[in-house]
Design goal:
The chain is an alpha+beta fold and 620 residues long. Helix content is 21%, strand content 21%. The protein has 14 helices and 24 strands. Strands 4, 5, 19, 20, 21, 22, 23 and 24 form an eight-stranded mixed beta sheet that branches. An eight-stranded antiparallel beta sheet has the order 10-11-12-8-9-15-16-17.
Amino acid sequence: MAAFTSKQKKKGQKPPEGKIRQSQVVTTFGPGAMVDLVERAVLIGGLDFWRYDKNKEKPIIDEPRLRDALAEKLKELDLGELRESEAFRAPPVGDDKEPSYFSGIQVAEFPTWFVCQGCRSLNPASNLERKRERWVHACKRNVLSECVPARFVASCERGHLEEFPWRYFVHANHKPGDCGAPDLYLLEGASGDFSEIVVQCACGATRKLSDALVDKSLPMCKGHRPWLGVEGVEESGCDLPLKLLVRTASYAYFAQTVSALSIPDPTRELLDTLRGKEVWNIVEHATQETLSTFRQLPQVGKPLQKYSDQQVLDGVKIIRHGESGRREHLRTAEYKQFMAQPEEVMGELPKREDEFFARRLVLREGELPDGIGCIVLAKKLREVRAQLGFSRFGSVSPNLQGEYEESKKRICRLGLNTDWLPASEIYGEGVLFCLDEVSVAAWEKRDAVEERTKELLDGFIKEFGEQGPAFPGARFYLLHSLAHLLISAISLECGYAASAIRERIYCAPSNDDPPMAAFLLSTGTSGSEGTLGGLVEQGRAMRHHLQRAYDLGTLCSNDPVCAAHNPADQAERFLEGAACHGCLFIAESACERFNRYLDRALVVPAIGRDRTLAFFGERP
């Protein structure tokens, strides 16, 4: 956040309240998020309140695979539609030197209840005065004290949001009419502990704020969605009770983002070629018998020379009947593309216009330990991340493809009258680390692994219930835990901090087509320059990094407590096995699953655990 100096202000022009990085708007501070600015607290407006400079071209981001996937999901969840073109936009960019109301994101002041720093009086903004951009309260005669926004608001499990019902809460145990003119105070103990916070009224009514944590202690939700404006109230209402929400807490906002790598898509390229006016006018009615004749024409033969007759005829059928074809899942398509890459040729570099460039690392026999399939060096990657919606009080878990399947009751929409989604594009590099499928399948059948899988499943059911999402399986825990260990190991030498390396897991069971057991470690920036190659080079020393990861995982500073943890036995840690801040947890910006679904005992031997449980039973 930054304030403007007086020299930057123009006559009659007010500078923006604050600044947020574009990439953060798509994740941490998207529509519906609560943000503290220098002078006040605000609520980020929905997409209908995003303003783009009319004199500049809109920052459109194109990624057809991601658009197709999200168009299906939006329709399924009744969250709107995406237009065929311009489905994604980068957040608007403000100009520090020429601030304007016509370029930026509008915000609403929220909450509008404030606490006086002089007398601890609790008042709505309508009872206060504005002075030098701050609300002030007249504590005594001629004494004005500054006020700060209340830390607490009210929300429900569906993400609706409104002011905390202070008057209702403190007088809930009193008879109606006992207090004709509420005069409220928010008193905090000397220690600042939550249990010592008390709401008090001049009429004598007093109540601890901790009482608000009890179920049904607050009124029913009214379905308010203030980030969507005055029309944002849910028409069908809401049948859930309100809950106390600390507006700056980490559980106040979970962005649902879906991402896709920009990879070559032969089918889409063929369809785009066929849709060309000169080509389509000729091949529109092509058959098996006439296509060979059409190919002799230069305007058809040259564009279609790399496609077989059957591919062309299938493409014509798709366009003719308006069929979109079977969409391949996001990560399955990416995994296939990685596996199809040729071996590396020394000195071969990506072209400037390439968005994807990867090569298989050529390995000598015995260079990698047993259980390792291959390593792919991705020297150039483009990733597009788009925000689908958000939730409060808990994150909505994506499936193994990184897509969301939960009902619309948990995902809040970002706009009312828009047909696009906010997105960002990241350019970078990465290393795909692929386990040997035969070894992984054999490991999954071990008695110790099957017993541990049952324990992990018990914890998963305690967290989500019998009707929750699909259990990801021990294979996912293995890949996820190994990815975390390697991020910690590689960061010591690659020139990037561990928080700058991000995982992307490719996991599918052995009976899938194809089965997947791999993960991509990548780094990148939202600028167009990309990265410097430090991470790719670490792929050439993977045995060394595996050995370091093995050493990091075998002993934790919290052992034997960490190693002995059973996910079904301890509250709030139902999704973790042997995992904690001393061994596996990394920066949440680097982890796809908020440091959950981890168990190092599946990767390396842990104290007190059967050695056959570990995929790497011996040091690589």
